[in-house]
Amino acid sequence: MFGCSSFEDFIETTGGSFVTLVHPEDRCRVDKDIRDQISGSPEKLDFVNYRIVRKDGSLRRVEEFGHRVHELDGRTPLPSFPFPPL
């Protein structure tokens, strides 16, 4: 998806953070949409769409379903990727 050759390349390209995956112009809207949706959902579900910037500079549109997960002590863990979205 990002045009990366390895997980390390993906981390270097994206900064390893969900926020930096999202196109800079979409970040505020995506953050607000996620917060609004999970606050109104007992299951803490959200659906957002946004752009990403690939390694080569091209743009792609992404549609994402999410689910906020909390640790037993109430902390919110860092996002994890079940597979690298290279």
From TrEMBL:
SUPFAM superfamilies named in the record: PYP-like sensor domain (PAS domain) (SSF55785)
Annotated ranges, domain PAS fold-3: 8-75
Domain of life according to the entry: Bacteria
Official protein name in the record: PAS fold-3 domain-containing protein
Lineage: Bacteria, Bacillati, Bacillota, Negativicutes, Veillonellales
